[in-house]
Amino acid sequence: MNENMLAGFRNRLEEVASEKIYETQCPFCSMQCKKKVIEERTPSRYVYHTVGMDNPTTHGRLCVKGENAYQHAFHSERLKHPLIKENGEFKKATWEEALTLIKKRTEEIGNEFGANAHSVYGGGSLTNEEAYLLGKFARVGLGTKYIDYNGRFCMSAAASASTKTFGIDRGLTNQLAEIEEAKCIILAGTNIAECQPTFVPYFEKAKENGSFIIVIDPRETETSAMADLHLKIKPGYDQALAKRIASYLIKEDLIDEEFCRERTNGLDELLAYLQEEANHTSYEEMDVTEREVLEAAHRFGRAQTGMIFTARGVEQQTDGHESVRHFLNLLLLTGKIGKDGCGYGAITGQANGQGGREHGQKSDQLPGYRKIDNKADRQYIADVWGIRESELPDKGVSAHEMMPLMETGKIRSLFLFGSNPLLSNPHADRVRRGFSELSFMVVADMFLTESAAYADVVLPTTSYLEDEGTLTNVEGRVTLREASKRTPGKARHDWRILADIAKQLGKGEFFSFSSAEEIFNELRLASKGGKADYYGITYDRIREEHGVFWPCRAEGTADEKQMFTEQFATADGKAELFYNPAATHEKEETDDAYPLYLTTGRTMSHYLTGEQTRRSSRLFAREIESTVHIHPETAEKYELKHGEQVILTSARGETIVRCTHSKKIRQDTVFVPMHWGGKQNINNVVDGTLDPDCGMPGFKRSAVALKPITQKVAISAN
Ligand SMILES: Nc1nc2c(c(=O)[nH]1)N[C@H]1C(S)=C(S)[C@@H](COP(=O)(O)OP(=O)(O)OC[C@H]3O[C@@H](n4cnc5c(=O)[nH]c(N)nc54)[C@H](O)[C@@H]3O)O[C@H]1N2
Ligand SMILES: Nc1nc2c(c(=O)[nH]1)N[C@H]1C(S)=C(S)[C@@H](COP(=O)(O)OP(=O)(O)OC[C@H]3O[C@@H](n4cnc5c(=O)[nH]c(N)nc54)[C@H](O)[C@@H]3O)O[C@H]1N2
Ligand code: SF4
Ligand SMILES: [Mo]
């Protein structure tokens, strides 16, 4: 062996000796793909590889975001110590200093204005344990009724619709494996190919088995490329379309009346309602043809098995709740639920969008989907928490409704964990005004975000490589993310931060946990007997069974993979068909000043407000700024050149984006992604009207105008 060979051999030995493997789950979407991040230490630097790991949901698949998610976790901008703002500038602080300040200001505000002057805002990236603890922190630690979370903007319409129709809200009523048995599939307002890419093979398999796929979307997408029928609907007309399909099912005798009579309530009322032509929107208005609607009804009605999936295209509307309910009518009318290859899926968005909406981050909710205004539910949780029922606060308001309360001084402090509201709320200016008026704001994040810039104290939290806990995936399967990496600098887990603050406030006894598993065991008890019952789920069981579906009521019982085989979760066991005599939910309409519809959403390479993916050099390189997708003929009309910057305005404000001509979008509609901040924040222009049934904003339809800009504007990496 010569010198060189020896050196090479030694180097390799060194490399192998210093390899570290972190087994984890992707921090981004609800697929929760399992993966290993392999860290190799070479003599000169660290090298990382990501490898997908087998699991029952995604079978080792990863998308480009999952492959590169380690980059933000190792990014130099990760917060490694607390920050305190002094004279408008953040200064490095110790935990003791930060916690002492939090105690002082929280007590001052509480003493002067009462406990309800505090507010808490959470997110669907938090683990179940942390989401649970955040709810407990608001109610027991601070004693405030004001807590809500970013899931309001995500799952609230589908969640409230499922709860009303089926009596329970688990995103998918079946496990994904059943999709291949569905002979007709409706994908309404979902772009799975870009948003849950590792989900796609299930539909490909269904297609191989002869399934007919119907996509409803105003744009041609990678998802609509799978479709046998694409209804390129005008934004906001899903409810009208679903009603039209329902009335064809009835006219063509394609309904399963026996199923409806046995297992649902409200058939006669719905039939009478749909018969009235006055309740229908014209085909011209929806901009789909009668032939297309008829074909959709025939295909779905005649298929032996079928499933419907909705996502934000249908749900993020000011009538999102009602629109979803009309799609659920289609399933019930045709009896396509509670049996193999039949069912509904509200495609959950965030990593823990499902679990995050079950255990008490919502203003009207206690753990296990218990209701905060139900006396028995309150008593049960008060007993688990060791407080008096009367000490539990009442119901607060939804996420965006907190903003005006901040502006008017009703809410004076905010604890923000795991969200970036300045970019993700509609009508961003309202958020700016609200945050500016706060007397005290604490943010826990991995990065100094645009929202965190308003904070008085910023606390460094841990990432998915460091923080252990359970997350409930798109299927309703509770998974365990076992994190093994050491925390960077002085960062602490969210659950520990909450416990530390509670201790300062004299509430330490209620938060004396030493591990995520201990919190989970309390969550199990708190959820016991509730709709989202996790009592039968333990860390060991999740390890052994590779995830456990809820509801799971006892350790010995099987979990529920397919729901509603015998009955629904309503009081009388029947599902509720829905009709709305007066559809009055206002949607923003175009006019001379704002002649185009704006719809917003996602692109493949970035995730939500981009705080994480913009810090991944590989993902950032794929898309370095925001763009508006516009039909070339529309662009010509407004003199908007491909590749140039344009100004997009609405009654709320303006934003600057680069113009991309695309024939894939309707001529009356433009599309802009939500991943960018600063001057490119699309929520500067989006309307803030909320769905009165669930608090969901109409992210998918605003009225806007576009014009070229004569002077080039520097867009920062935001
Ligand atoms: N790459 C990527 N993946 C993600 C995310 C991400 O940020 N980036 N976020 C995750 C999260 S939190 C979520 S909630 C999900 C969201 O997942 P999706 O809901 O699938 O994503 P969106 O792009 O918001 O919207 C879906 C589609 O709705 C269409 N649409 C717009 N208006 C209408 C309408 O009026 N009617 C109908 N029928 N369709 C309409 C859009 O053209 C778009 O193709 O994705 C998750 N996955
Ligand atoms: N116009 C428009 N707006 C939208 C949408 C749309 O389609 N159009 N979609 C809406 C939807 S569906 C969603 S889900 C929201 C999402 O909106 P946000 O909640 O604002 O989105 P994120 O970018 O996920 O923000 C999460 C923040 O939490 C941090 N974070 C990540 N993990 C953790 C953790 O474990 N602990 C803590 N403390 N922090 C963490 C990240 O660094 C990031 O700064 O946006 C909504 N806004
Ligand atoms: S973003 Fe979603 S689909 Fe992609 S790897 Fe992560 S969890 Fe899987
Ligand atoms: Mo979402």
Question: Can you describe this structure?
Answer:
The chain is of the alpha/beta class and 718 residues long. The protein has four domains: 3-73, N-terminal domain of TfIIb, CATH 2.20.25.90; 96-154 and 352-549, Rossmann fold (3-Layer(aba) Sandwich), CATH 3.40.50; 156-346, Dimethylsulfoxide Reductase, domain 2 (3-Layer(aba) Sandwich), CATH 3.40.228; 596-717, Barwin-like endoglucanases (Beta Barrel), CATH 2.40.40.20. Helices cover 31% and strands 18% of the residues. It is built from 24 helices and 28 strands. The strands form seven sheets. It has a seven-stranded mixed β-sheet with strand order 5-4-18-17-16-6-7, with helices on one face. A six-stranded mixed β-sheet has the order 24-26-25-28-23-27. The chain has a five-stranded parallel β-sheet with strand order 10-9-8-12-13. Helix 5 (128-142) links the parallel strand 6 and strand 7. The longest helix has 19 residues, at 95-113. It is globular and about 70 Å long. The termini are far apart. The model has no long low-confidence stretch (mean pLDDT 95). It binds ligand MGD (2 copies), iron/sulfur cluster and molybdenum atom. One ligand MGD binds next to helix 18, strand 17 and strand 23. Iron/sulfur cluster is lined by residues 26, 28-29, 31-33, 62-63, 65-66, 196-198.
